[in-house]
Design a protein that fits this description.
By secondary structure, the chain is α/β, with parallel strands linked by helices. It has 14 helices and 15 strands. A hairpin with a 2-residue loop joins strand 14 and strand 15. The longest helix has 27 residues, at about 350-375. The two termini are about 35 Å apart. The relative contact order is 0.13. The structure holds adenosine monophosphate (AMP) and zinc ion. Zinc ion binds near residues 60, 252 and 277.
Length: about 525
């Protein structure tokens, strides 16, 4: 839900509905300590890293068979904002995100061994590796456009096959896994706490999103660690169980622990990852190490379109490139995601994107005014009224961010600051030191948010285009009514926002002055 408007709502979005996100009454912990909602505990929990000053975070990354859609990017923007805020608070963050380049099969695809990447390779007449590398590159380009910081590592399962095989061997040895006709399954009945993350105890399991049917399974929810490859299968490797390829869940256990150690501080994903993917990651990793795998499980709710989850299978998706073609700025999309709490559903629409773009522009305009003023004004000490405003805003911003990353509320405090700051500016009551202090405050906040300073990618935003077209239409109406004074006034208005209009035989044409 987009909740930005001219009078910005200061209420934080609440996560409602859905058993994963239910919060017991009376669980709001003390303010001003960083807390995250831990899916495992179903409540907010004060955050403490395992290693002093360092946070180890793993994010389930993309399967690179196509361009990621903006629903996927909601999950990655959330992970990036967690990282940025931890850095704002002084932590060093070691972040790893997998790039799935083999083995992501849907339950419908297992029988036919329809790996998404192989299918894309056949369709595009390329090799699976060409497909995977092409879409990996596109994914990283998109994350750059969204001002998502690069992770410490982006490991690929195809480059970790020996690690995967070794872990599976240990699981077989410990009797958590069994082999049948060249395929290896995880035996979920052996893992005592199976279901602890999703609240799906063994006896209550119903058909899930990635339940994979197979005649050799002992329990319907046993899952693949290694699959026997049919002869014609394009991506396959030798193993102690014959030629095959790894299942999807195993890569995340193997690669997260390889680069971050047996116990991670934070593991993220979208809510659809909770079951079975993350449940299975816990079963694999904890059976292997006998240690706690993840201390804080953080999941974002889905991005919806007209009430339905944005997904490839429903066909109701936009890629970032689709938005760019329509002249939307990727940073406006990042800003839009921050305006809903990550545990609330977020309904996406192009209209919302236009609206928020104006809001972001307001903050940037305020910053520009501060910059211009600070060059002209004399240096004087910061007055108590401005000092108070700065302190209050910083306190509110941090209080909101500390409270399970309440970005809508944190942004509301920024909008309040802009409103009050503009009033002081208009009255000429800001001196050079104050302008600098206010500028620095916003720049500090932006380290955590990544939207204000970010380079604008679109030459002209959709919101600005709508505004320009509106003014041009209004000017045309004035000209038709021979109201030349009004027409000139509108032309001047357009000039002020950097647009030049020319009247031609075919009607007015306009261009943005460079
Ligand atoms: P996938 O490539 O399907 O494994 O998805 C990559 C990431 O995007 C996972 O963390 C998913 O949970 C997440 N994701 C997929 N669809 C959405 C959506 N509509 N809204 C938010 N996150 C999503
Ligand atoms: Zn994963």
């Amino acid at each position: 839900m987009v909740r930005w408007s001219r009078s910005f709502s200061a209420k934080g979005g609440s996560a409602t509905g859905g058993s994963f996100f239910k919060e017991p009454k009376g669980s709001i912990p003390k303010l001003h300590m960083l807390k995250f909602y831990n899916t495992l505990l179903r409540k907010k929990q004060i955050f403490k890293s395992l290693h002093k000053g360092e946070v180890r975070m793993y994010n389930c990354g993309p399967t690179v068979y196509d361009f990621a859609h903006i629903g996927n990017f909601r999950a990655y923007i959330m992970a990036d904002t967690i990282r940025r805020y931890l850095e704002y608070k002084g932590y060093k963050v070691k972040q790893v995100m997998n790039i799935t380049d083999v083995g992501h099969l849907t339950r419908y695809d297992v029988k036919a061994a329809k790996d998404k990447i192989i299918e894309a390779a056949k369709k595009e007449k390329k090799t699976p590796k060409e497909i995977a590398r092409f879409y990996e590159k596109a994914f990283l380009e998109d994350t750059d456009k969204l001002n998502i910081k690069r992770a410490y590592k982006y490991p690929r399962p195809t480059e970790h096959l020996q690690d995967i095989i070794k872990l599976i061997q240990v699981l077989i040895k410990k009797d958590y896994a069994y082999e049948a006709k060249g395929t290896v399954f995880y035996d979920i009945t052996r893992f005592k706490n199976y279901g602890k993350l999703s609240g799906n105890p063994l006896e209550a399991l119903k058909a899930g999103a990635r339940l994979e049917p197979h005649p050799d399974k002992r329990h319907p929810y046993d899952f693949f660690l290694w699959l026997k490859a049919p002869k014609e299968h394009l991506m396959k490797w030798p193993s102690p169980w014959g030629i095959g390829y790894p299942g999807w869940h195993i890569e995340c256990s193997v690669m997260s622990m390889k680069y971050l150690g047996p116990t991670l501080d934070i593991h993220t994903g979208g809510e659809d990852n909770i079951f079975p993917h993350h449940e299975n990651e816990i079963a694999q990793s904890e059976a292997y190490t006998n240690k706690k795998f993840v201390r804080y499980w953080i999941h974002c709710r889905h991005l919806l379109v007209e009430g339905k989850k944005m997904s490839k299978s429903l066909g109701n998706f936009y890629t970032l490139r689709d938005l760019e073609k329509k002249k939307y700025d990727p940073i406006d999309f990042r800003f839009l995601t921050l305006l809903s709490h990550y545990r609330s559903h977020m309904d996406f629409s192009e209209k919302a994107l236009v609206q928020v773009s104006e809001g972001l522009e307001r903050i940037r305009e305020f910053l520009n005014k501060l910059k211009v003023k600070s060059q002209k004004l004399k240096a004087k000490a910061v007055k108590p009224v401005v000092k108070k405003l700065i302190e209050k805003t910083k306190k509110n911003f941090e209080k909101s961010m500390d409270n399970d990353l309440d970005t809508p509320k944190a942004l509301a405090s920024i909008f309040d600051l802009v409103k009050q700051g503009n009033k002081l500016l208009d009255k000429g009551k800001i001196n050079k030191a104050e302008a600098k202090a206010l500028h620095k405050l916003l720049m500090d906040f932006d380290k955590a948010l990544g939207v204000i300073k970010a380079k604008k990618i679109a030459k002209i935003s959709k919101a600005k285009e709508v505004k320009i077209l509106g003014l041009i239409k209004e000017r045309e109406r004035a000209r038709k009514a021979k109201d030349w004074k009004k027409a000139d006034q509108i032309r001047n208005k357009l000039r002020k926002i950097g647009v030049e209009v020319k009247d031609t035989d075919k009607g007015p044409v306009w261009k943005v002055k460079s």
